[in-house]
Amino acid sequence: LRGHVPEEGLRGPVLDALRAQVGSAIPVTDKVLILPRPQCGALAGIADTGLPQSTDQDTDERLVGENAQAREYGYSEGERLTFDLVTPDYPAYVYVDFFDADGNVVHLVPSQYAALTLQAPAERLIVGGETGAAAFSITVGPPFGQEIAAAFAASAPLADGLRPPVEPAGPYLSWLKTAVAAARAADPDFKGEWVYFFISTVAASN
Questions:
Q1: What pTM value is reported for the model?
Q2: Which fold has domain 52-202?
Q3: Where are the domains of the chain?
Q4: Residue 128 in 3-state DSSP?
Q5: Nearest Cα residue to 147 out of 65, 42, 63, 48
Q6: Are the beta carbons of 122 and 56 closer than 8 angstroms?
Q7: Angstrom distance (rounded) from CA 172 to CA 148
């Protein structure tokens, strides 16, 4: 069983219900992660943008495409935040956002450090790397906890200009939903999808 629940107390009932459905002949392995609020709500908001979640993740957790659980990363305070993904099977603009434990979204791509560019199909993109289209340096700091990063692929740009570097996640996701709807209305052949990553951050050990 893969997925996430907002609190530890919900893991057991979910597993019990599934085991009751499939019976004892089929073992159920628990890979459920705890994604507390507000990130759980942010993920629901992402799913409501009108873009499909990537089923390409069934074969590779980094792929952006059309549903599977994402890769999980762990970082300590002061470490460089970096992760990689693979673009979908068509030319796409890739937006990368980090949703923190305080309910805000930090825009990584595009940003003042990384411009929005058209990416080739099936191209490896290193977010926060030393070189490449998404090269910049950001280090982990408070607030710490269970957080998520999301990458949105779109066959056409969703907006002109940059969003504020940091803003509340709720209004941003509402804007994103509107932008996706406008892109679909403008182009019947518009394509888009998203992928997410679990990111656990902790304070540096003394």
A1: 0.76
A2: Immunoglobulin-like (2.60.40)
A3: 52-202
A4: coil
A5: 42
A6: no
A7: 15
